[in-house]
Amino acid sequence: MSTSDTRFMALALSLGRRGLGQTWPNPSVGCVIVKNGRIVGRATTAPGGRPHAEPQALAQAGAAAKGATAYVSLEPCAHHGATPPCAEALIAAGVARVVAPLADSDPRVAGQGFDRLRAAGVAVITGVLAEAAAADHAGFFLRTEQGRPKVTLKLAASFDGRIATATGESQWITGPVARRAVHAMRASHDAVMIGGGTARADDPSLTVREMGMERQPVRIVVSRRLDLPMMSRLARSARDIPLWVIHGPDVDPALHEAWQGIGAQLVACELRGGQLDLRSVLQALGDAGLTRVFCEGGGGLAASLLAADLVDELVGFTAGMVIGAEGLPAIGALGLARLIEAPRFELVESRPFGPDILHRWRRVSTGSHSNA
């Protein structure tokens, strides 16, 4: 691959990242149109998932698109949905060359976009920054391939792994710089998820604040019995900001009606061993179109996700504070007898955020996506 191909693909990927959390159920794609070394069009998938990046960038480029190279951060779509196929739009515009990192995993596309381009005489180059693109589109790929969204588990804890004192005091263990970073992370996800215990103890709003967000992530509470406070911040804002409550199949009908009445969307899921089956929960979220879920605890939900092998990425903020064994642990009991049974992740990055330390860990990859 040429240096210019890498440079312009890096720009397309960065454009795609701007839309993460805003385009579900569609992937957030970046497109850059280049003619004679000059950028003549660029775009990101619009909020809500359409229009796609390619037709927006082509509209910017106009006549200059003829004979140009299009750098797209995912294979152009080939199916007729709410909008015409992007592959056909590129062909109609007279683009001479398309550079993309990898194929779309959606079975309606899956190489067919590349095939259409090649059949029309467009040169197609793949594999450019494929690893970075696979990481960016991990949530979309998980949903199309496994039916569930990507799960990022975020923990903010003391040096000894506590998230609250014995009396339940937890605000604030980490500082304002780390908390602002968490808001940015929320903004890049389709949904923010917590357990019922955290909803009762902390009364959070789970919104993205001070970042000019027009489209807030969906707020999800996992509560087996739907026994949540009706006067909470979440409940009072349910008509204005999406609130989904995941519950078991046998909740009190009066509670069900009450939560529906204040504007919450209720999702019934299966039980396993008397508790909500988190695979069923994530399947339901995938069916609803979510691709990226940011889980902020608490300890019981975190432990259940880890035990079910459903955490794709760990994000930890560690504070220079020690609370002691009587404090509330960041992760509940896992029932492990041997170290070999412990969930393990590989370190992606570690860096300071004010007085706190961020460490990000990723599930070890077991497969790869095709470049087609």
Walk me through what this model shows.
- With 372 residues, the chain is an alpha/beta fold.
- The protein has 12 helices and 18 strands.
- The chain has helices spanning 3-18, 53-61, 86-92, 112-119, 130-136, 138-146, 176-187, 196-202, 233-236, 253-261, 278-287, 299-307; strands at residues 30-35, 38-44, 69-72, 97-100, 123-126, 150-158, 162-164, 191-195, 218-222, 243-247, 265-268, 271-272, 275-276, 292-295, 313-319, 328-329, 346-353, 356-362.
- The strands form 4 sheets. The chain has a 9-stranded mixed sheet. A 5-stranded mixed sheet has the order 2-1-3-4-5, with helices on both faces.
- A hairpin with a 2-residue loop joins strand 12 and strand 13.
- The longest helix is centred in the first third of the chain and has 16 residues, at 3-18.
- The protein is globular.
- It starts with a helix and ends in a 10-residue tail after the last strand.
In short:
The protein has 372 residues and is an alpha/beta fold. The protein is built from twelve helices and 18 strands.
Reconstruct the topology from this structure:
Layout: H1 3-18, E1 30-35, E2 38-44, H2 53-61, E3 69-72, H3 86-92, E4 97-100, H4 112-119, E5 123-126, H5 130-136, H6 138-146, E6 150-158, E7 162-164, H7 176-187, E8 191-195, H8 196-202, E9 218-222, H9 233-236, E10 243-247, H10 253-261, E11 265-268, E12 271-272, E13 275-276, H11 278-287, E14 292-295, H12 299-307, E15 313-319, E16 328-329, E17 346-353, E18 356-362
Parallel strand pairs: 3-4, 4-5, 6-14, 6-15, 8-9, 8-14, 9-10, 10-11
Antiparallel strand pairs: 1-2, 1-3, 7-16, 12-13, 15-18, 17-18
